[in-house]
Inverse folding.
């Protein structure tokens, strides 16, 4: 490369492909993945072109009604975004199934699997209706780190923001529970005193 | 498992089984494909390096292939005539080695007879020497055939390599679409680990073998011992076999040196050279390069090498260890699933 033409001046084929793909007159299949990613809250910090590049690392998976996406205690490496359909998260204790929450379109799950080494799933995810997911897995992220370092650091930043957000929610819950717990303890003490008086 | 997913599982299973059968039925296509697959795994970082400069995938694949051809063809063209002349010279020296071994054996016979009164038959020596001679001549007769297939490889491998480099990702994407949902994450993860293990191992082994070969070659060259190139190459090639390889690589060299130069300074120098080279290999190169990649029990290593050589010859010998490591990975994962408590 001579000094006359810097890197910015070169024609980027990928950029042209991208511009062609967002052309409103065509609606090819390729556009749909970035389009979906754009709708996801956690990836807001990424630009259009970055989403277009990121989409190449995602896999599209379809599930039927009642199919299990991952099971509690399974080895997990993937992060999923729901494209269409609904997912039920549940957990099992002593053979009894407990409902945790339902996830809808644009929701996501499994981010810890992407970050933690040898992660075990903490809940079971089941498709409530016919389901379409976008999944990205640990090997994809490793590939992305070596191929597109800037993009991958942005993506991982988004992931860590997501995890931090969850951590905050968790801390708040714990705080709330602690306060409630102390209230309950006080009440128990009061009740005991009252019982002692009545006796 | 729903019906759709079961269908996926069946199709994927059929795909795996049929490709394995095709692989063993058509070795002439399978061998170059296997070589290309391994080369792709090894060269992928280089491809990524080119791509990072904004060169597209097709052009970078072509660049990698050209670079590889440039780096390998020139040494081959330079070294081959030297090797041919050394092999030709070897024919002259073989009778010398033969008579040396005979005299050594008669000394041993006398020694054993004197100490134990048992007379060793000279049939053993003759038998084993005839065996080696037959094997050697059979090998020499087979050389044109090997050369023919090597020539085929030289033309086919770069072509295949270009396309495997260019299209490996698309191909992998198509295959991942076949994976059944139930096992998707596990299989995807395992396939990546498997690929990394094979690629890393073979690259490490090639580097290790070349380091050893170069040390032996230069050492023998400076000791002014004939056939230094041949013995260096032999040491490098046999180094691929773990544990026993270095011994196999050293024995012919020592027999020749003892026959040609006697048990004098040359022999001592070569002994020290082989010891130092193998100590460097065992103490520095192996722990740094190879042992991080595979941790297999020594018995498993030897067994897998034997099985590999029986099934696929030299190729099998090279890929047996990473394959065994990958299988171990798979089995460990399955055992974990079955036995480990879930909560």
């Amino acid at each position: 490369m001579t000094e006359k033409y810097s890197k910015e001046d070169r024609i980027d084929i990928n950029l042209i492909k991208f511009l062609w793909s967002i052309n409103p007159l065509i609606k090819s299949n390729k556009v749909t993945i970035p389009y979906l990613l754009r709708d996801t809250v956690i990836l807001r910090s990424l630009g259009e072109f970055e989403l277009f590049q990121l989409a190449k690392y995602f896999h599209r998976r379809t599930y039927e009604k009642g199919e299990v996406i991952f099971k509690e205690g399974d080895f997990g490496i993937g992060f999923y975004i729901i494209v269409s359909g609904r997912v039920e998260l549940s957990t099992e204790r002593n053979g009894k199934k407990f409902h945790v929450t339902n996830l809808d379109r644009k929701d996501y799950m499994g981010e810890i699997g992407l970050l933690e080494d040898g992660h075990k799933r903490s809940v079971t995810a089941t498709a409530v209706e016919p389901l379409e997911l976008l999944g990205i897995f640990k090997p994809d992220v490793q590939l992305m780190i070596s191929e597109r370092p800037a993009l991958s650091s942005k993506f991982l930043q988004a992931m860590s923001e997501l995890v931090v957000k969850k951590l905050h929610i968790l801390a708040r819950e714990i705080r709330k529970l602690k306060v409630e717990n102390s209230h309950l303890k006080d009440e128990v003490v009061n009740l005991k005193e009252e019982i002692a008086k009545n006796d | 498992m729903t019906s759709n997913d079961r269908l996926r599982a069946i199709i994927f299973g059929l795909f795996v089984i049929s490709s394995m059968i095709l692989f063993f039925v058509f070795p002439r296509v399978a061998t170059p494909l296997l070589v290309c697959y391994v080369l792709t795994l090894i060269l992928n970082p280089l491809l990524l390096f080119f791509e990072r400069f904004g060169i597209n995938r097709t052009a970078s694949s072509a660049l990698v292939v050209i670079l590889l051809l440039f780096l390998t063809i020139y040494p081959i063209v330079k070294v081959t005539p030297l090797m041919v002349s050394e092999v030709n010279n070897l024919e002259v020296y073989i009778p010398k080695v033969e008579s040396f071994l005979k005299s050594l054996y008669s000394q041993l016979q006398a020694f054993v007879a004197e100490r134990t009164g048992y007379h060793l038959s000279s049939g053993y020596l003759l038998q084993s020497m005839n065996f080696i001679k037959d094997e050697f001549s059979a090998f020499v007769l087979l050389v044109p055939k090997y050369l023919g297939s090597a020539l085929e490889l030289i033309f086919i491998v770069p072509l295949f390599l270009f396309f495997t480099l260019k299209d490996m990702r698309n191909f992998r994407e198509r295959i991942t679409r076949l994976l059944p949902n139930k096992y998707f994450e596990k299989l995807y993860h395992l396939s990546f680990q498997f690929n990394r293990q094979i690629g890393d191992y073979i690259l490490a082994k090639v580097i290790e073998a070349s380091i050893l070969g170069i040390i032996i070659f230069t050492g023998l060259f400076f000791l002014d011992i004939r056939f230094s190139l041949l013995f260096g190459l032999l040491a490098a090639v046999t180094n691929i076999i773990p544990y026993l390889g270095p011994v196999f690589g050293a024995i012919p060299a020592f027999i020749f040196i003892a026959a040609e130069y006697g048990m004098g300074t040359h022999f001592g120098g070569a002994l020290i050279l082989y010891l130092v080279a193998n100590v460097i290999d065992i103490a520095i190169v192996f722990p740094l390069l190879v042992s991080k990649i595979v941790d297999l029990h020594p018995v498993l290593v030897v067994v897998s090498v034997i099985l590999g050589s029986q099934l696929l010859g030299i190729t099998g010998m090279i890929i047996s260890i990473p394959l065994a490591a990958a299988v171990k990975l798979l089995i460990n994962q399955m055992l974990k699933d079955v036995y480990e408590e879930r909560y």
Notes: Strands of chain A lie at 59-63, 68-70, 78-84, 87-93, 96-103, 108-109, 124-127, 131-137.
